[in-house]
Amino acid sequence: MEDTDGNVPRCECKVGRLVSRYRMESVNEELEARWRGDGFEKQSVRELADLFNRTILARTLSAAGHSAVKSEVESLYHLLTGDVSKGMTAEAHGRLENYGVDVTTLRSEFISHQTMYRHLRNCLHVSKTKTEVTVDGELDRINRLQSRAEAVLGDTVTRLSNADALADDNYRPIVSFRVMCKRCGTITDFADIASHGGCQCQRDGDTAT
To answer: Is the pTM for the entire model greater than 0.85?
Structure first.
Protein backbone atom coordinates (compact mmCIF):
# COMPACT_ATOMS: atom_id res chain seq x y z
CA MET A 1 0.00 0.00 0.00
CA GLU A 2 1.27 3.50 -0.83
CA ASP A 3 0.69 6.80 0.94
CA THR A 4 -0.52 10.02 -0.68
CA ASP A 5 3.04 10.77 -1.85
CA GLY A 6 2.89 7.59 -3.89
CA ASN A 7 6.21 6.11 -2.80
CA VAL A 8 6.30 5.28 0.93
CA PRO A 9 4.98 1.85 1.88
CA ARG A 10 2.54 1.84 4.78
CA CYS A 11 0.82 -0.94 6.64
CA GLU A 12 -1.43 -1.48 9.61
CA CYS A 13 0.89 -3.71 11.64
CA LYS A 14 2.43 -2.43 14.87
CA VAL A 15 5.60 -1.27 13.12
CA GLY A 16 3.61 0.51 10.45
CA ARG A 17 1.46 2.31 13.02
CA LEU A 18 4.53 3.47 14.93
CA VAL A 19 6.26 4.59 11.72
CA SER A 20 3.22 6.73 10.94
CA ARG A 21 2.79 8.03 14.50
CA TYR A 22 6.42 9.15 14.81
CA ARG A 23 6.70 10.30 11.18
CA MET A 24 9.54 7.90 10.39
CA GLU A 25 8.55 6.90 6.85
CA SER A 26 12.17 6.75 5.65
CA VAL A 27 12.99 4.13 8.27
CA ASN A 28 11.39 1.40 6.14
CA GLU A 29 14.01 1.81 3.43
CA GLU A 30 16.78 1.72 6.05
CA LEU A 31 15.38 -1.41 7.70
CA GLU A 32 15.24 -3.16 4.33
CA ALA A 33 18.78 -2.08 3.43
CA ARG A 34 20.19 -3.15 6.79
CA TRP A 35 18.49 -6.55 6.61
CA ARG A 36 19.82 -7.18 3.13
CA GLY A 37 23.20 -5.57 3.75
CA ASP A 38 22.74 -2.98 0.98
CA GLY A 39 25.04 -0.10 1.96
CA PHE A 40 25.07 -1.29 5.58
CA GLU A 41 26.52 -4.21 7.46
CA LYS A 42 23.89 -6.94 7.35
CA GLN A 43 21.84 -7.07 10.55
CA SER A 44 19.51 -9.66 12.04
CA VAL A 45 15.83 -9.00 12.76
CA ARG A 46 16.70 -8.92 16.47
CA GLU A 47 19.26 -6.17 15.87
CA LEU A 48 16.76 -4.29 13.69
CA ALA A 49 14.08 -4.54 16.38
CA ASP A 50 16.53 -3.09 18.92
CA LEU A 51 17.47 -0.32 16.49
CA PHE A 52 13.80 0.50 15.91
CA ASN A 53 13.06 0.50 19.65
CA ARG A 54 15.98 2.81 20.39
CA THR A 55 14.69 5.16 17.71
CA ILE A 56 11.26 5.16 19.37
CA LEU A 57 12.94 5.90 22.70
CA ALA A 58 14.94 8.78 21.22
CA ARG A 59 11.83 10.24 19.53
CA THR A 60 9.86 9.93 22.79
CA LEU A 61 12.58 11.76 24.73
CA SER A 62 12.71 14.47 22.08
CA ALA A 63 8.91 14.90 22.18
CA ALA A 64 9.18 15.29 25.97
CA GLY A 65 11.68 18.11 25.49
CA HIS A 66 14.79 16.12 26.41
CA SER A 67 17.48 15.87 23.75
CA ALA A 68 19.36 12.69 24.68
CA VAL A 69 22.75 11.83 23.22
CA LYS A 70 23.24 8.40 21.66
CA SER A 71 25.06 7.01 24.71
CA GLU A 72 22.17 7.92 27.01
CA VAL A 73 19.63 6.33 24.67
CA GLU A 74 21.79 3.17 24.53
CA SER A 75 22.09 3.11 28.32
CA LEU A 76 18.39 3.69 29.00
CA TYR A 77 17.35 1.06 26.48
CA HIS A 78 19.72 -1.48 28.03
CA LEU A 79 18.35 -0.74 31.49
CA LEU A 80 14.78 -1.12 30.25
CA THR A 81 15.24 -4.33 28.28
CA GLY A 82 18.56 -5.92 29.25
CA ASP A 83 19.51 -8.44 31.89
CA VAL A 84 19.91 -5.97 34.77
CA SER A 85 18.75 -5.78 38.36
CA LYS A 86 15.29 -4.54 39.31
CA GLY A 87 16.92 -1.58 41.04
CA MET A 88 18.69 -0.49 37.85
CA THR A 89 15.46 -0.82 35.87
CA ALA A 90 13.63 1.23 38.51
CA GLU A 91 16.33 3.88 38.25
CA ALA A 92 15.80 4.08 34.48
CA HIS A 93 12.04 4.41 35.05
CA GLY A 94 12.69 7.28 37.46
CA ARG A 95 14.94 9.10 35.01
CA LEU A 96 12.37 8.79 32.23
CA GLU A 97 9.53 9.93 34.47
CA ASN A 98 11.61 12.96 35.47
CA TYR A 99 11.90 13.74 31.76
CA GLY A 100 8.09 13.59 31.48
CA VAL A 101 7.93 10.23 29.69
CA ASP A 102 5.06 7.79 30.27
CA VAL A 103 7.17 4.67 30.76
CA THR A 104 4.26 2.23 30.53
CA THR A 105 3.24 3.60 27.14
CA LEU A 106 6.85 3.68 25.94
CA ARG A 107 7.52 0.06 26.83
CA SER A 108 4.26 -1.05 25.22
CA GLU A 109 5.52 0.45 21.96
CA PHE A 110 8.71 -1.60 21.87
CA ILE A 111 8.52 -4.37 19.29
CA SER A 112 9.82 -7.94 19.29
CA HIS A 113 12.08 -9.43 16.64
CA GLN A 114 9.15 -11.58 15.49
CA THR A 115 7.12 -8.41 14.85
CA MET A 116 10.02 -6.92 12.90
CA TYR A 117 10.33 -10.10 10.81
CA ARG A 118 6.63 -10.08 9.93
CA HIS A 119 6.85 -6.40 8.97
CA LEU A 120 9.78 -7.03 6.65
CA ARG A 121 8.30 -10.10 5.01
CA ASN A 122 4.54 -9.47 5.01
CA CYS A 123 4.34 -5.67 4.79
CA LEU A 124 7.49 -4.61 2.94
CA HIS A 125 7.76 -7.92 1.02
CA VAL A 126 11.50 -8.07 1.54
CA SER A 127 13.28 -11.29 0.71
CA LYS A 128 16.71 -12.06 2.09
CA THR A 129 19.17 -14.16 0.17
CA LYS A 130 21.40 -16.28 2.36
CA THR A 131 25.02 -15.21 2.02
CA GLU A 132 28.32 -16.69 3.10
CA VAL A 133 29.47 -15.96 6.65
CA THR A 134 32.80 -14.09 6.58
CA VAL A 135 35.36 -13.28 9.25
CA ASP A 136 35.23 -9.57 8.43
CA GLY A 137 31.44 -9.53 8.65
CA GLU A 138 31.42 -11.28 12.02
CA LEU A 139 34.18 -9.05 13.39
CA ASP A 140 32.20 -5.99 12.32
CA ARG A 141 29.18 -7.36 14.20
CA ILE A 142 31.27 -7.88 17.35
CA ASN A 143 32.74 -4.37 16.99
CA ARG A 144 29.25 -2.85 16.88
CA LEU A 145 28.31 -4.75 20.02
CA GLN A 146 31.54 -3.60 21.67
CA SER A 147 30.77 0.03 20.82
CA ARG A 148 27.29 -0.24 22.33
CA ALA A 149 28.66 -1.87 25.48
CA GLU A 150 31.31 0.84 25.86
CA ALA A 151 28.64 3.54 25.47
CA VAL A 152 26.59 1.97 28.27
CA LEU A 153 29.69 1.63 30.47
CA GLY A 154 30.70 5.24 29.83
CA ASP A 155 27.24 6.47 30.80
CA THR A 156 27.35 4.34 33.96
CA VAL A 157 30.72 5.81 34.98
CA THR A 158 29.37 9.34 34.49
CA ARG A 159 26.24 8.66 36.54
CA LEU A 160 28.26 7.10 39.37
CA SER A 161 30.58 10.09 39.36
CA ASN A 162 27.64 12.50 39.44
CA ALA A 163 26.28 10.56 42.42
CA ASP A 164 29.68 10.92 44.19
CA ALA A 165 30.13 7.14 44.10
CA LEU A 166 33.33 7.69 42.08
CA ALA A 167 35.95 10.36 42.72
CA ASP A 168 35.63 11.55 39.11
CA ASP A 169 34.64 10.36 35.66
CA ASN A 170 38.11 10.55 34.17
CA TYR A 171 37.93 7.04 32.74
CA ARG A 172 37.89 5.65 29.24
CA PRO A 173 35.51 2.67 28.93
CA ILE A 174 37.11 -0.36 27.30
CA VAL A 175 35.18 -3.56 26.60
CA SER A 176 36.92 -6.58 25.11
CA PHE A 177 35.60 -9.95 24.02
CA ARG A 178 37.78 -12.96 24.76
CA VAL A 179 37.37 -16.68 24.34
CA MET A 180 39.00 -19.61 26.13
CA CYS A 181 40.32 -22.53 24.13
CA LYS A 182 38.90 -25.76 25.55
CA ARG A 183 41.92 -27.60 24.25
CA CYS A 184 44.75 -25.70 25.99
CA GLY A 185 42.94 -23.29 28.30
CA THR A 186 44.46 -20.17 26.74
CA ILE A 187 42.31 -17.04 26.91
CA THR A 188 42.67 -14.93 23.77
CA ASP A 189 41.08 -11.90 22.16
CA PHE A 190 38.26 -13.08 19.90
CA ALA A 191 39.54 -10.88 17.05
CA ASP A 192 42.90 -12.70 17.17
CA ILE A 193 41.23 -16.12 17.12
CA ALA A 194 38.97 -15.16 14.22
CA SER A 195 41.73 -13.46 12.22
CA HIS A 196 44.11 -16.42 12.55
CA GLY A 197 41.57 -19.18 12.09
CA GLY A 198 41.83 -20.65 15.57
CA CYS A 199 43.92 -20.90 18.72
CA GLN A 200 47.72 -20.97 18.54
CA CYS A 201 47.74 -24.53 19.92
CA GLN A 202 45.57 -25.69 17.02
CA ARG A 203 47.76 -23.90 14.50
CA ASP A 204 50.88 -25.46 16.07
CA GLY A 205 49.18 -28.86 15.89
CA ASP A 206 48.36 -28.37 12.23
CA THR A 207 51.97 -27.41 11.56
CA ALA A 208 53.27 -30.44 13.44
CA THR A 209 51.18 -32.82 11.38
So the answer is: no
Query: In angstroms, rounded to a whole number, what is the distance separating the alpha carbons of residues 176 and 161?
Result: 23
Q: What percent of the chain is predicted at pLDDT more than 70?
A: 89
**Gap between the Cα atoms of 48 and 41, Å rounded:** 12
Region of 184 please: left (phi>0), alpha (psi -120 to 50) or beta: alpha
The residue ranges of every structural domain in the chain are 1-129, 132-175, 176-209
CB atoms closer than 10 angstroms to residue 153: 17
Bridge partner residues of 189 (DSSP)? 178
Question: 28-45 pLDDT, tens per residue?
Answer: 999 999 998 888 888 999
Please give the Cα distance from 157 to 119 (Å, whole number). 37
**Max CA separation in the chain (angstroms):** 69
- Answer for the pair 175, 153: CB distance below 8 angstroms, yes or no: yes
pLDDT tens-digit readout, 85-104 = 999 999 999 999 999 999 99
Tens digit of each residue's pLDDT (9 = 90 or more) over 130-141: 556 778 878 888
| Separation in Å, CA 92 to CA 34, 62, 72, 101 | 29, 16, 11, 11
